[in-house]
Specification:
The protein is an alpha+beta fold. It contains 7 helices and 25 strands. The strands form 6 sheets. Strands 3, 6, 7, 14, 19, 20, 21 and 25 form an 8-stranded antiparallel β-sheet that branches. Strands 4, 12, 13, 15, 16, 17, 18 and 24 form an 8-stranded antiparallel β-sheet that branches. A 3-stranded mixed β-sheet has the order 5-11-8, with no helix packed on it. InterPro entries: Beta-glucanase-like, ConA-like_dom_sf, Glycosyl_Hydrlase_16. Belongs to the glycosyl hydrolase 16 family.
Amino acid sequence: MASPRPFFLTPSSSDDHSSQEDSPDSPRPRISKRRQDPPPSAFTFPFADPARRSLDGSFFETPRLPSAESPYKSFNRSYSLANLHRSPDLQLPRASSATTIFRSPFLSPASRPSTIWSPPPVSANPSVVALPLTQKKPIQSTRLKAKLTKDDKPWLAKKRRCESGSWWLTFFAALLGVLIAAALCFRGWESVDLLSDSQLCLVMQDDFDSSIDPNNWSYDIELGGFGNGEFEMTTDDPSNVYISNGQLYIMPTLTSDSIDGGWDSVMSGATYPLPDCTAQGGGSGNSTTTGSSNSTTSSNSTSSSSNPCTAVSNNQSGTVINPVRSGRLNTRGKQTIKYGRVEVRAKLPQGDWLWPAIWMLPQGNDTSSSTGQGTGVYGAWPVSGEIDIMEARGNLPSYPAQGSNYVRSSLNYGPFAGGSTPISTGERLFLSIYGWVSTKRGNFADGFHVYAFEWTSEWMRFYTDDRLQAMINLKISSKSSDSYFFNTGGFPGVAMNASSGKEVVVSDPWSTAYGGSAAAPFDQEFYLVIDLAVGGTSGWFPDSVGGKPWYDGSATAMRDFASKYEEWTATWPPNPDERAFRIDYVKMWNLCR
């Protein structure tokens, strides 16, 4: 006999089932396929309607748990849903507690009876015996259970000489490497050239506390371009050179603010004689370029008839009065050094085409005004050399040709005096040894920095703030070495004289003159120059770079620059603290003898 099943879980309890006691002639209710009410349940769902409609349209109450007289039993026979709903008084056999299944609250009905898998029984019949899975033996652990004894290591009983020798060889090799590294470090530390305080004797210290000391400084007052075709005139006017806040200010101003007629006079129809002019015979020397092609010649003159003390503006000839006024100081005939140290703490100016510089020129044997500046014991510039401690540009860091985030040092020299013998410009007869440092955050116009130069007969060093930021670091050994400046220049054996067309022998001008040491021409007394230039035709500002409004080779270069004054003056800060070249202090030491 099959086990009894509950009515609402068996497949026989479908909606179209008929009871065995039903008459075959009894009518069956039509059950809608779209809506089928669930069978009676012992659980009342929340929010359910207490009155429910039966299949034939009548209402019946929600069923409750079956009582003792309930007909809801499990047995072999099944009842029709139609009879069950239509005959509420029909008595059904009571289901036993062992076979009656009730769902727990909130549990979804199972789609099929729950079953639990169990392995098939083992039978004597081989065809139905479940074969067990084969298992491999566990791998034996390689971990040592105890520390090996000497008996377990028979190879230690007999030592070979090569093994002992290899250990000592490795040890001595490592020790030798450490000793060599220490020796290299010590040699590198010893090779750093330093000037101790005991080697230096103070020559000048100017902190600019009150006024410009005439025992240290002289004014350069002229408008001839200083050999570079510069566009400014240098004055001793208190608006251009003055002391403020314990600092020296070199302030660029517009000439139109200081002369009668204003900007119209600068451009045309005026003659301006520079008061207290100190220039003699034109601006020869002091150039940082080669030959006369970049000097202040008549074609690129900044004044009438190349007069460094008078300027004429003429619209037809294309000449103008220098559009900017600035300042330039030097220690010529007052404070000089031959070997030692120079320190200048300064803040650079900000503004397009400004050219601040701290540099040195040879003193020479004649310090009178009749002798041009830059003429040393070996001759006129550049034979006696030029030392540029610091040069910079006032253009913003975005300027492609190194703006105010770069500072530069250089050594300039050559075997022929500029302008005295017009050597063909196609030959290399001038050398500039240079280097620079840069900052990636801000620029050198944001604050003060120390620009220093250390110099002996054996080495030279240029640096900014500390020796780790060296711009140039040179060794000088002997005349026969490559460090000798004439050998470094790589000058040709002969050159063509452009005026006569004859060849000229390029000889060493420092071999016999004035002792001719290995440091020549930088083995003589030099004085200090501090100035703020504007523009120029020397190539310091390359053509067609950064919106440059003039060309160096143009006869009207200064006029072209002046005509664009609205553009470049817009980049000059109105605050003097930002526009001026500010010097905090200047110190000069000589190498004690």
